[in-house]
Amino acid sequence: MKPLSGSPVFTVSVPPHAHCGRTFKQDALGTIIALLPAAAFAVWHYQMPAVRVLALSCFTAVLTETICLYFMKREIEADNYTALLYGLLFGFLIPPAAPWWLVVAGSFISIFMGRMIFGGQGTNPLCVPLVGWAVLTVSWPDLMDFDMTMLASELTYPLSQLKNFGPETLDEYPIKSLLLGFQLGGTGAVQTGAIVLGGIYMLARKIIRPDIPFAFIAGVAATAAIFYFIDPFEYASPEYHLLCGATLFGAFFLATDGPSSPTGHTPMLIYGFIGGVLLVIIRIYGMYPDGVPFAILLANLMTPLIDKIKPGPFGGITSIHVRSRS
Amino acid sequence: MNPLFSLAPSELDPIINTWEQELGGALEISLEITGFDPLVRPNEQVAKAQPVAADPAGKKPTVHSSISGTITNVKKDFITVREEGARIAQPSEFPVADSQVMLNALRENGIDVRGLKEGCTLIINAMPRELGMDAHRILIEEFNEIMLTGLQYLKKALSPNACTLAYPGRMDWTISGCTGHEITPVYPNSLPEIVTKEVTGKELPSEVCVIDATTLYRIGRTVHGRQPVTLVIVKIGSTPYLTPVGTPVGVLLKLAGFRPAEHDRIIFGGPLTGETVYSLKHGVGPDTQAITILRTTNTPTVKDNPCVGCGECVIHCPARLQPNMISRHAEFGLYENTLAYGIGSCIECGLCGYWCKAQRPILQYIRLAKKELAAQPILEGLRKQK
After folding, report:
1. Residue from A79, A118, A256, A326 whose CB has the most chain B CBs within 10 Å, to mutate
2. How far is residue A178's CA from residue A190's CA, in Å, rounded to a whole number?
3. Nearest by CB to A18, which of B115, B272, B361?
4. What is the pTM of this model?
5. Which has the closest alpha carbon to A101: A73, A65, A140?
6. Taking the domain A24-154+161-306, which CATH number applies?
7. Which residue of A56, A168, A245, A297 could cross-link A290, Cys pair, CB 3.0 to 4.6 Å?
8. What is the ipTM of this complex?
9. Would you say residue B207 lies in a domain?
10. Any idea where the domains of chain A sit in the sequence?
């Protein structure tokens, strides 16, 4: 640009001219970093199959988004890491021994039906990776069943043990081994200890607010405690509900997804709590061993309703004409 | 706490009078007259404090030349005057009469009196509007009797039922005849709507008028000197400059030793609610309190990203609105829908855009919707309330 009358060219912007410096792109990158410990644990437990699932899922997600954006005649936005993040989250949910076409199909469905069909970035009404997970679970229940696909593994799936043989089987799983990820489940989702580390990292970096995860955990703990109090021999204790399966992964990484969760402190707390309650109810009464994905999907569907809970506006002005700025 | 939101007044450097400085040639001021009718022609000689442009609708304050000189240019948006001679306009009269006459006398002498109503509760807002906009502490601490003159005139004009000075906590500012009210010095506690809430405990009550401490000083100076105020205190960095209204920003920046670079932002006001200017020739207005310069850095700038639903704007909104939803509707021209989200309560603090992770121009979307809605016909009943 040529200078006007010898003076430098200034930037003219709309207020506010200052910005807090945080962008969703940094947050997506931060979330991926928070997922890395769990990914490392997954590789430690399952070696190459885990690497294969995560890499394939990430690759398919980014590719799907790029192709969709190309056909939508929009700018390619793979550089904001959100598609990569959703691909990684999807990879965390499925069994490490899943066939390649299942991973590709699930990752594609997640991005295409969960995200791009609604208009891309920021528009998804449901948590993106859960859409693909739900379609796969309903369509190929055998392949998504951790016990069936992971027969070669020495590890067992505590939630199906709980469902089929009752809570006394959970005594085989000491808390420490659950935290270290000695249980079957989604590739990265059951690396509970590493997930907690990632969650703390995200809270410390203020990538997520504590409202949703803590309300979710409180919902799980409270509901599980009620059932445990009713009959300790019939129902598992709250700590097993928290540490088995994808509970904490859901609390920190899936329920906190921006577009599909409500805004404001009270709605966030209500949403998280509902998700936690639904999780335990599905685990106890549902046909699926782990209720995390369906609980969060149902809570996502309630988001527009929960968002209606809001305080009245300042001064309760309903017309633009009443006030003129002094 | 975020230092950007601190409103605690700082220690000021000694005040600098620009006319005592070497400016390198005659001063040429630029007065903004957008929407006004010019009262002068090019090459006409004007006296200091002579009116040069007036609002045809009779609402906005008249613009006066702040120096004695020759009109060099009259454009749709500005008038430029080159300094020459030492003529001074005739003093004006300030009769003690009814409210309308007294307020109109102020308006014709360059004071914005819109929003002042008879019989209201008067709040004098001495909060620095934003970080660094605290040069008015000189007025309160050293020119208290001028403020008092202004207050006495306003009291006669408005006969308010109560009068309160709202000032940042831990300061000992007083104006006699006013009760004091301490306010926590954190943004957005300086905006008139929040100050009103803090003082009266009510949200947007109709019977309250908020007047800025600087405006009160200008009223006092106008009535005392029987002439429009031609000088304004503009703070750059930590130095206040006393300068004629309309002094080009380039002159002030040069005095402050600041060399602007490409793509810097020069803001009249603070970083959250100020206005950027595109030229160094832009003159400071009678209500300019500070000039903020934002260097080009890698801080995120406004983009047309979609809302990503993080909810930061909702959590930080002092008016308890949902800026995310308002901006989504305004973005696609659905202005009517924004009323249901309480857009009328927005106090334009700019915090939504400050915290927006998607770098959306949320405040601008809100302003657009407000403007479009205000342009629509309204019911007569609402018009009367105004």
Report:
1. A326
2. 8
3. B272
4. 0.90
5. A140
6. 1.10.3430
7. A245
8. 0.90
9. yes
10. 24-154+161-306
